[in-house]
Amino acid sequence: MSSPNRRGRPFPEGNSGRRPGSRNKSTLISAALLEGEQSELLRIAIDIAKQRDVAMLKFLLGRLLPRDRLIKIDLPEIISANDARGALQSILRAVSAGTISAAEGAALGALISPFLGGAEAKSSSQVNTPTLLDHLRSADQE
Questions:
Q1: Given its phi and psi angles, is residue 71 left (phi above 0), alpha (psi -120 to 50 degrees) or beta?
Q2: Are 108 and 124 in contact (CB under 8 A)?
Q3: Which tens digit of pLDDT belongs to each residue from 75-131?
Q4: Distance CA 118, CA 91 (A)
Q5: What pLDDT score does 105 carry?
Q6: Model pLDDT for residues 27-42, shown as the tens digit of each residue
Q7: How far is CA 34 from CA 25, 30, 48, 122, in A?
Q8: Long-range contacts for 96-101 (Cβ within 8 Å, ≥24 apart)?
């Protein structure tokens, strides 16, 4: 009667359950009670945060500030694995210069790494790409 892939209590024939997008009764009641109070509640939350309540400040900033920022760095057009290596070097330079954060560099590197394919499997003696240490030394000399 019931298939092993079905979750929860099966509904009777003709009853598909709650419609997609419909809200719980308690959610509807809460929304009705708060109707018109949003600006006052926000003002109170801001006042609490201004009184050095770190938890409230984190809560507000976590919702108001964007989680990711747009970054702009010059990268070469990627057609081959060599182009991808060049792009990774550009990203590394931007991270070491402080133009982008290490997390942003890692995210960009993850986007580019599939273009490397098996090229990175070669030993470092076969591929003449500078190491992180080489790059940092050259930055110190500039």
A1: beta
A2: no
A3: 988 888 889 999 999 999 999 999 999 989 999 999 998 888 765 544 444 556 666
A4: 20
A5: 92
A6: 888 888 888 888 898 8
A7: 14, 6, 19, 62
A8: 96/135, 96/136, 96/139, 97/139, 99/71, 99/73, 100/71, 100/73
Angle in degrees, CA 15, 21, 23, rounded to 5: 90
The DSSP element (H or E) to which 27 belongs, if any, is helix 25-34
Query: Hey, is 123 helix, strand or coil?
Result: coil
Residue 29 corresponds to which tokens in the numbers above? Answer: 């009641």
Indicate the domain borders of the chain: 25-64, 81-121+129-141
Give Cα 7 distance to the centre of its chain. 31
Q: Name, in order, each residue with C-beta under 8 angstroms of 113's C-beta and a sequence gap of 6 or more.
A: 84, 88
- The pLDDT tens digits for 61-70 are 888 877 777 8
